[in-house]
Amino acid sequence: MAALDGKRIAFLATDGVEEVEYTKPREAVEQAGARVELISLESGSIQAMQHMDKSSTYPVDKAVADADPGDYDALVLPGGVANPDFLRADPDAVRFVRAFFDAGKPVGAICHGPWTLVEADVVKGRTLTSWPSLRTDLTNAGATWVDETCHVDNGLVTSRNPDDLPAFCSKIVEEFAEGRH
């Protein structure tokens, strides 16, 4: 039996998502047995990026306004510069993210992904890492920022950038298998 058999994992992303920060964690949780759904701002597909260049598009399973956080066991927030900026400006996306924290469900956020956590007001009193330019935003929101490959704080897994993906992917599988915190 795989570590995540029977678990449903939501990936919340939109146009501008850093491709490898979506594809590698998705591959990791699927290989561990999870069912994954891509949740986005609208139905259709999203445009992924490789740094600043357009890459592949990915089909959206459900619009965030129609998604019930109660249907999922965990959440992943990939980065990319534009992706979390669009997400944090959408009230439905912010409510969706906050619901995972209210329910004590594990969440993984990499690179610029924690921007959405700031908007959801869920970082106060937590320790996390991110892309370095988010340090001020996170500390202003009440978090303690650390420069680490991967940091876990009560079910919240964060990493800095695509170089950290091996550690991030391993740790989200572990935390998602543990379940609610």
UniProtKB/TrEMBL annotation:
**Name of one Pfam family that matches:** DJ-1_PfpI
Task: Tell me which Gene3D superfamilies the record gives.
Answer: 3.40.50.880
The coiled-coil segments of this chain are none
**PROSITE patterns membership:** PEPTIDASE_C56_PFPI
Superkingdom of the source species: Bacteria
Q: What positions does the domain DJ-1/PfpI occupy?
A: 7-175
Supply the alphabetized keyword list: Hydrolase, Protease
Gene Ontology molecular function terms on file:
peptidase activity
**Which Gene Ontology BP annotations are present?**
proteolysis
Which PANTHER family would you find in this protein's record? DJ-1 PROTEIN (PTHR42733), PROTEINASE (PTHR42733:SF12)
Checking NCBIfam families in the record gives:
PfpI (TIGR01382)
Its family?
Answer: Belongs to the peptidase C56 family.
Output this protein's name.
Protease I
